[in-house]
Specification:
Number of strands: 2
Structural class: mainly alpha
Shape: globular
Radius of gyration: 21 Å
Order of helices and strands: HHHHHHHHHHHHHHHEEHHH
CATH architecture: Orthogonal Bundle
CATH topology: Hydantoin permease
Strand order of the largest sheet: 1-2
Bound molecules: phenylalanine
Largest sheet: 2 strands, antiparallel
Number of domains: 1
Strand content: under 5%
Length: about 450
């Protein structure tokens, strides 16, 4: 396949890994994983999660990497190039819509984390009771415009990075944010291990109680795994189109998956022991990070410092994921609509921020706008995480496992046969049968069909 290519990709292998891991490591790992694991049996959930991540997540991620790097195009161009004259380009459009929708509600929670950096820096969280934290949080998220302003601030930073382009934006910022993120989460985990009753939290996280694992928990593990790895909807495909041709895709996907899993587990280690030491209900759910943690921090020595560090960590994690989402529509506008990067970024950021504000306001002025009994934010999250991502995951498997020639896949994974690939047959088998069937199960479950 020959096509002229003047595209700029990632400069170094480390830059590529930092960017890809940056996309994967996000609010899903630090905000979502600890409470989803807690409400689904702790250690037992972790085991199932690990199994899905390596057995299904890895092949699907590798498929997205191979397709993306093969085509070296935006998502729409990718399907036009690899599947000319077919309807596969529709999948490209679906991917652009999904990425934009995910970013529209991702920006809401990311805006909250900015407010919490501010609150902890100004020490406003000090000396408050549990009820005070509840009031602080609920009056903030329901405020007529405060949350919207932070949401816009977050989107401006996201847009500014993407405006810098692949090397001077995405790669440059991921390269220093990701190492700092790792250092902070390790420091937080070590700190948490020194707490009196930390062993209770660790036991909860690592000791499997299979009696608490339900069918729903198993499906939640698969969904969480996909969301956390950023796979399923062809979003990583855009980043993969920037991976240098001589990098080993199998190694990179393993490294990204290990980094993502490690951060999820470290987030559990950082949060759960503290939760147990201060006798807080670990099943507090989505509010765990904003209600419970500030309370824990103020009982720790140097609590303010830990609080600031934690919310910076959360913001970095969110930011490196948000840029990967924004790059999907932006690269489409640049390559298909021939816009200059600054204009493409401006248009996409404005549009997504505009839609996103409705999600942010759905905790306040727009709380009565309900879809199927959910507010706009929850409806958007549900549609993306439980329906569009799994649906896209099946399509990725069908495209890579059934439509694409096996030799094309093999050539890309083996760098034109210069690498020895050991598990190719098993990998194709998982892509063709195991992965799509498992994913269809979550999808039907999400739709209430089983
Ligand atoms: N993986 C990110 C997280 O865990 C979310 C995400 C999903 C980012 C899909 C990009 C694409 O927070």
């Amino acid at each position: 396949m020959h096509h002229s290519n003047h595209r700029i990709g990632f400069k170094s292998k480390f830059g590529a890994i930092a960017a890809l891991a940056g996309s994967a490591v996000g609010l899903g790992n630090i905000w979502k994983f600890p409470y989803v694991a807690s409400t689904n049996g702790g250690g037992a959930f972790l085991l199932v999660y690990l199994f899905f991540t390596f057995a299904i997540g890895l092949p699907v991620m590798l498929a997205e990497f191979s397709i993306g790097r093969r085509a070296q195009q935006n998502i729409l161009g990718t399907f036009r190039l690899l599947a000319p004259g077919t309807k596969w380009f529709l999948f490209g459009f679906l991917s652009i819509i999904t990425a934009s929708l995910i970013l529209s509600f991702y920006g809401t929670v990311s805006g909250w984390t900015l407010e919490y950096i501010w609150l902890s820096m100004t020490d406003s969280l000090h000396g408050q009771s549990a009820e005070d934290f509840q009031t602080i949080f609920s009056s903030f998220i329901s405020h007529p415009y405060k949350a919207v302003l932070w949401h816009i601030a977050f989107m401006v930073i996201t847009g500014a990075i993407i405006m810098g382009g692949v090397q001077k934006g995405i790669e440059r910022y991921s390269k220093w944010m990701m190492p700092i993120l790792f250092i902070i989460i390790i420091a937080l985990s070590i700190n948490s291990l020194t707490l009196n009753e930390s062993s209770k939290g660790l036991k909860f996280l690592f000791f499997p109680k299979f009696s608490e694992l339900t069918g729903q928990g198993i499906l939640a593990a698969l969904g969480q795994s996909f969301f956390s790895l950023s796979i399923g909807m062809g979003i990583l495909l855009t980043y993969a189109s920037y991976i240098p041709k001589n990098n080993n895709l199998t190694h990179i996907s393993l490294q990204v998956i290990i980094a993502d899993t490690l951060v999820a587990i470290l987030a559990g280690v950082a949060i759960l022991p503290a939760v147990f030491s201060f006798h807080i209900d670990p099943q507090a759910g989505p509010s765990l990070v904003f209600l419970t943690l500030p309370q824990i921090f103020q009982e720790l020595p140097a609590g303010q410092l830990w609080a600031v560090l934690f919310f910076i960590l959360l913001t970095f994690a969110a930011l490196t994921s948000a840029i990967s989402l924004l790059e999907v529509p932006v690269s489409y506008l640049i390559e298909e609509k021939k816009l200059k990067r600054p204009w493409a970024t401006l248009i996409a950021t404005l549009l997504i921020t505009f839609i996103g504000c409705f999600n942010t306001l759905s905790f306040g002025p727009l709380r009565d706008a309900q879809i199927f009994g959910m507010n706009l934010f929850d409806a958007c999250d549900y549609l993306c995480s439980n329906i569009l991502l799994p649906f896209g995951g099946v399509l990725v498997c069908i495209f890579a496992g059934w439509y694409l020639q096996k030799s094309t896949l093999y050539q890309e994974i083996s760098n034109q046969e210069s690498l020895k690939i050991r598990f190719f047959k098993l990998y194709v088998f998982i892509l063709k049968y195991i992965a799509p069937v498992c994913i269809l199960l979550i999808l039907f479950h999400a739709l209430g069909l089983i």
